[in-house]
Amino acid sequence: MTDLLLSSLGWTPHFASQVEPGKACTPARITGVERSHILALGATGPLRLLVPQGTGSTAVGDWVLHDGTTVTRRLAPRTELVRRNAGDTSRRQLIASNVDTLGVVTSCNADFNPARLERYLSVAAQAGCAPLVILTKADKADPEPYLEQARALSPLVVALALNAKHPEEVVERLTPWVSEGRTLALVGSSGVGKTTIQNALTGVQAATQDIRADDAKGRHTTTARALRRTLAGGCLIDTPGIRELGLVDAAEGVGEVFSDLVDLASNCRFRDCSHDREPGCAIQAAIAAGTLDPDRLRRFQKLEREDRAHTEALHQRHARDRTFGKATSQGAARAKWKRRGPEAEE
Ligand SMILES: Nc1nc2c(ncn2[C@@H]2O[C@H](COP(=O)(O)OP(=O)(O)OP(=O)(O)O)[C@@H](O)[C@H]2O)c(=O)[nH]1
Ligand SMILES: [Zn+2]
């Protein structure tokens, strides 16, 4: 029973193998983070545990070991979602751990924006999460052209369209990503339907209204939230930070989403080709031949520039204070995901 509950929370051999045999330690998954305590779910139910060194290096979704009152260890995560710190863009901020699928929510209307989708897909690829594009408001417009565009962005994309206001439809379509042991997090612009989807998946009655006067003041209906169980037995993560993902240290993620361009560029005559006017540029040749959309090249270059600028600032800081130790575990999670494929089961 106990093991069953832990596995429905996402406990896998990856975590079990980190527990030293014979040590009296119990696992729990973080559902919320306070200043000096974490909220967690373990086999016995909800817990509030002290983190003696402060909660700065933990995130919602992490697995920890504890002795009943205190966290004794954080277990190395399988995936880490990181963003640029909103206040200080030269810092990276861990916002959620062990997310299997990053649900990128957009709607079948003016919110649909390939550049924004590619940015989120890059963040997902970098984190090691499988990307799922969820197109809402399929009741308002024909979703087919949007689905087609989303799928054309990257071979990594799985895309589906739904009417988020029909809870049964949401549950039926999204259950594969929120069933026992699986963790989903949603990102997307304000108003695309994230809260509506989450309410359907967790069985909570909708707090969203058709007219939200608060929006004009920048207040969102969704503020204090973290990891919750879904009706299908899995987990849903929603933290305020997850809604504003900025790129940092994501060159590999960007490269995966734009692997078509990376492959083409390897055929350019010059190694440092800027794909502008150089002779022998394979990318310009593809544009001239009509097989590559020049807008895609522009979006790729813009994301690369953005990532490079913030990553440089990050590394300058890194050189100043050498307390930074996340890059390796994130890279390992990403490599693992790449090896096993986004839909691989434990
Ligand atoms: N017709 C229709 N309306 C939808 C759909 N999804 C969401 N809505 C409506 O769109 C509005 C915004 O939905 P929310 O779920 O609050 O959007 P959100 O993404 O959580 O927004 P923030 O909390 O601001 O980030 C609400 O009025 C919903 O009822 C859909 O698929 N079809
Ligand atoms: Zn070139």
TrEMBL record:
GTP binds at T136, K137, A138, D139, G188, S189, S190, G191, V192, G193, K194, T195, T196. Residues 307-346 are annotated as: Disordered. It is found in: Cytoplasm. It is an enzyme of class 3 (hydrolase). Transmembrane segments: none annotated. Pfam families: RsgA_GTPase. Residues 97-243 form the EngC GTPase domain. SUPFAM superfamilies: P-loop containing nucleoside triphosphate hydrolases (SSF52540). The keyword Disulfide bond does not apply. Binds 1 zinc ion per subunit. Zn(2+) binds at C268, C273, H275, C281. InterPro entries: P-loop_NTPase, Ribosome_biogen_GTPase_RsgA, RsgA_GTPase_dom. The keyword Metal-binding applies. Coiled coil: none annotated. Keywords: Cytoplasm, GTP-binding, Hydrolase, Metal-binding, Nucleotide-binding, Ribosome biogenesis, RNA-binding, rRNA-binding, Zinc. Its EC number is 3.6.1.-. One of several proteins that assist in the late maturation steps of the functional core of the 30S ribosomal subunit. Helps release RbfA from mature subunits. May play a role in the assembly of ribosomal proteins into the subunit. Circularly permuted GTPase that catalyzes slow GTP hydrolysis, GTPase activity is stimulated by the 30S ribosomal subunit. NCBIfam families: ribosome small subunit-dependent GTPase A (TIGR00157). Belongs to the TRAFAC class YlqF/YawG GTPase family. RsgA subfamily. Monomer. Associates with 30S ribosomal subunit, binds 16S rRNA. This is Small ribosomal subunit biogenesis GTPase RsgA. It comes from Rubellimicrobium aerolatum. The gene is rsgA.
